[in-house]
Fold each of these.
Amino acid sequence: SLLEAKGFTPDDFALSHPGGSLGKRLLLHVEDLMHTAENFPAVTPQTSVKDALLEITDKRLGMTAVLDGNKHLLGIFTDGDLRRAFEKGINVDTPIESVMTTGGKTITADALAVDAVGLMERNSITCLIVVDEQNKPVGAVHMHDLLKA
Amino acid sequence: SLLEAKGFTPDDFALSHPGGSLGKRLLLHVEDLMHTAENFPAVTPQTSVKDALLEITDKRLGMTAVLDGNKHLLGIFTDGDLRRAFEKGINVDTPIESVMTTGGKTITADALAVDAVGLMERNSITCLIVVDEQNKPVGAVHMHDLLKA
Ligand SMILES: Nc1ccn([C@@H]2O[C@H](COP(=O)(O)O[C@@]3(C(=O)O)C[C@@H](O)[C@@H](O)[C@@H]([C@H](O)CO)O3)[C@@H](O)[C@H]2O)c(=O)n1
Ligand SMILES: Nc1ccn([C@@H]2O[C@H](COP(=O)(O)O[C@@]3(C(=O)O)C[C@@H](O)[C@@H](O)[C@@H]([C@H](O)CO)O3)[C@@H](O)[C@H]2O)c(=O)n1
């Protein structure tokens, strides 16, 4: 990346902040910071809103991915989506597929953390689904994972 | 700040990112980036959960402050708090004071944006209430406001 070409290192970011190491992680790769396996929040399209919320709370990322039987990404459901669904009058037994956001913003595991932050900013979101070359989810990354000291 | 002492300028941050100007705002002050007046989400303790959600959606920060009659900060209610309250079985007519988080993390308007990011990271939150010397709320700032190009 240009950042690396300019000779920036994670330590430059670390040293540049009086509070310590804010930004230390920005030149790491998404795969080094993402939540995988049992820490990746995922439900099926038929999961009830009620059970999807338990998954969101359990995995602590403020959202859950919705995956089909072949583990392909169908959509995402965030705390903000819950609020909007709740305002419309939500039934806790509704399958999540009827209220999820279809698609969902993704990034690859080999991307730089700084580029994940940029993608989040451009979309005003705080979490990304991490996908492989076949567009299959392999994890998720939160803004906090990218900026934390 | 040490950042300024080291000769860092907002333009250094801007130039350091290939995608453009990520971090351009980090040396600005919170007061330059915060949401004030009619863009600051605030409700009274007696406001129903239902009406508090409308305020959150309307002001687009994913939370609302709860202020008493003298405009002092009593608490905050976020999208994450909504999820947790919803899991317990929430009544939309409940006054917000019974489900809000008492207190709420704050910062002053003269703080640097980079320090607001640090405070958010240390607390795993995405929004801060901005208060004056008398601890009265004057606005709010979201992580997105601090990092946006
Ligand atoms: N200025 C603030 C901001 C938040 N809070 C409180 O801090 C707690 C966590 O804030 P949140 O915004 O609800 O944080 C969440 C949460 O549910 O805890 C939201 C969620 O979408 C996701 O962003 C996760 C992170 O993934 C970290 O787990 O974090 C809440 O009780 C909130 O009232 C606070 O006291 N002062
Ligand atoms: N990887 C992602 C992440 C999110 N989204 C979608 O993008 C929309 C916005 O995401 P959000 O997480 O709900 O974003 C919120 C929102 O309610 O829009 C949450 C809220 O707490 C607060 O953080 C505000 C910001 O203040 C910006 O308005 O942003 C949602 O429909 C969500 O499904 C997506 O498609 N892909």
Amino acid sequence: MTYSSTPTPLQNAKSPIDRLLALSAADMAAIDVIIIERMQSPVGMIPDLANHLVGAGGKRLRPLLTVASAHLCGAAHEVHHKLAAAVEFIHSATLLHDDVVDESALRRGRKTANLVWGNSPSILVGDFLFARAFNLMVETQSLEALGILSNAASIIAEGEVQQLAALRDIDMTEAVYMDVIGAKTAALFAAAAEVSPIISERPVAERHALRKYGQELGLAFQLVDDALDYGGFESALGKSVGDDFREGKVTLPVIRAFASANSEDKAFWTRVIKEHNQDETDLEKAVSILRRAGALQSTMEEAKRRSDNARKALTIFPDSPWKTALSDIAEFVVERIS
Amino acid sequence: MTYSSTPTPLQNAKSPIDRLLALSAADMAAIDVIIIERMQSPVGMIPDLANHLVGAGGKRLRPLLTVASAHLCGAAHEVHHKLAAAVEFIHSATLLHDDVVDESALRRGRKTANLVWGNSPSILVGDFLFARAFNLMVETQSLEALGILSNAASIIAEGEVQQLAALRDIDMTEAVYMDVIGAKTAALFAAAAEVSPIISERPVAERHALRKYGQELGLAFQLVDDALDYGGFESALGKSVGDDFREGKVTLPVIRAFASANSEDKAFWTRVIKEHNQDETDLEKAVSILRRAGALQSTMEEAKRRSDNARKALTIFPDSPWKTALSDIAEFVVERIS
């Protein structure tokens, strides 16, 4: 695997995600009905703003995990659909708040809700979607699933605060970075996959396997995202490039490049990250240093290891189209950069 | 009851709230232990910021409702304490987000968290406390209590968005205003009181009575708050005065004054609220118009009616110190302005 600046976009029409979407078409249609129904409110600003985000597409990767895991454990029923919708609502609430915190301007190829409506509506509609997620979970009558997802929700918030506290910390360690992405991203992937065997009352080994699959897939996904922030094309990704750099968010490529930097490069990173003193040529310079240090390549290799772990976690399940689909997704996530 | 600008502060040492706090001392100590324990995190910014708000005091009125309702229904056990802590966490999360939305500077006599740490930590720590509230609820193993509180959480968010959408709307009706305060304030009071009879498996009539008590108390509380915003003293209240006016938030005093205003006063309200064009003498002028129109007085009378409704809802319970305490609180809430 070599790193180039031409990503295979996640939106690729023949991607394994699209194949899984096709396999799950009936389930995803049922989940869409729940999502649309539960984001309604007589307060018009709520469905308007929620629909701007939810209706913009996105691959519904997390609810797909819940659905595929459900089929891997027997079948997907209405209760799985409700949990899948709850997972998507938690994710949507997080995105709305993240975009306020990060002052993001672009999401899924659209202007962010904070840019269109302002910060306050984004905060409050995020709270609404988060609460509606819990309404849905309560309806499933599964205290165990509620426990898994409410625990994931507090871990996500913890990871977001930790990331914020570590902003511009050029001395951030790899261990802290892995903690942050494990919490802010992988925890929800893990929970989305784990709730299905719980609902289906499957053996604990299957719970652990799917939790592990989700966790490792989430790590792989975020590692790739963090590499793409220094290499993708804005139009293909539907999000801005260089956001992390401009915010002074320290990610694995920067940690690794800084660790092996000569004194001139160390001074560069200290200026642009720690002192947060950047001009418009600095992103290009950063990318050039990252490439020279092999930091994007090594980040992608770390992602590949996580992806392999995710696929290995599935070995306890008998072969099926669902197992193949989940395995292919793990492989695909790290090949967005080919 | 006549309206004057000298409030009896909620912090009054001999208030019924203090008497209920004394009566509930053992319960409130147990709840404090849970609150302190559950706002901990290895991410230091979380307990720091949470403690700034939670440790600043406040009367813990909502958890007190849960405790007193529990005793009214027999006894308060650990499960009630956990729900009371969850209620306080939901309230705290709402305060953190509200202060960001309202750009507030003062809360409980302290600088707000958004002023000290910034908006982003306030948003994310609010999310954390909200998630921790659900962790606690899951531990109680009561799906019914979870349903009540998660439903309240989505109604609160809905009310907050509705309030935001109605900002500067000088044509806001009383019905919309009552919807907003019913959602943003009274829903949590109602849920805090209702969860105790649910946990204690009491007859549905007691659930309805305590829900009604909480709802009407919450309305009374918010009506008084909205009157005090045009009449209290900053030092006594521990919050800013004139905040609603400066934000262009339309509350019952303004709705009533506008309804009976002559053309000169209508032009004033249109300028300061709808066009949001204010100078530093306008708050004083607003107060003078509100007094002349009897709008503060009539708002307090509406609060008194709600308080009476709350007390009447308790009649189905046999006499006890807890019933007296809850009744006295309803009376006290509307006599903060004596």
